[in-house]
Amino acid sequence: MIAENPPRRVPEGAAVKHVLKCWPHQWEQTYLGDKTCEWRRDDRDYDVGDELVLLEWDPASAKYSGRGLVMKVTHILRGRFGVPDGYCVMSTKFVGETSADAHGIAKRDIRR
Questions:
Q1: pTM, whole model, 2 decimals?
Q2: What share of the chain is helix, strand, coil (3-state, %, to 5)?
Q3: Most CB atoms within 10 A, among 68, 92, 93, 103?
């Protein structure tokens, strides 16, 4: 049997935090609880238990809104059921709200 998500060598309880841009419509749907998954390029060694910090990014102004969400990865699908190589679909669970400046985003990059 092939493991879908082979375990990484990370100490117990040492989940990785991934800070990611999230466009307004997807951010709002996640905030409302209607969107509970993330389709992403699989370039960050995502794993179950990791946290995704989704910072709302406005492509029109090329700035962050300042709003953010923390989501926990509960399941990952790679290379199966229509997910192309190099991409993954992560099931997520709401952890809490956050802000862009709480994650080192410069104030000049936050829309005011």
A1: 0.82
A2: 15, 45, 45
A3: 68
- Is residue 71 within 8 A of residue 18, CB to CB? The reply is no
Residue 78 tokens read as 């790679």
**Separation of alpha carbons 23 and 74, rounded Å:** 22
User: How many residues are listed for the chain in this entry?
Assistant: 112
Q: Give the tens place of pLDDT for each residue, 64-105.
A: 998 999 999 999 999 888 899 999 999 999 999 988 878 777
Query: 59: helix, coil or strand?
Result: coil
Phi, psi for 34 (deg, rounded to 5): -80, -25
Helices (H), 6-90: 24-32
- 17-109: CATH number: 2.30.130.30
Instruction: With CA atoms as reference, report the closest residue to 25 among 52, 60, 49.
Output: 60
* Contact between residue 93 and residue 72 where contact means Cβ atoms under 8 Å apart: yes
CA atoms within 13 A on the CB side of 65: 18
| pLDDT, tens digit (0-9, with 9 covering 90-100), for 49-69 | 999 999 999 999 888 998 999
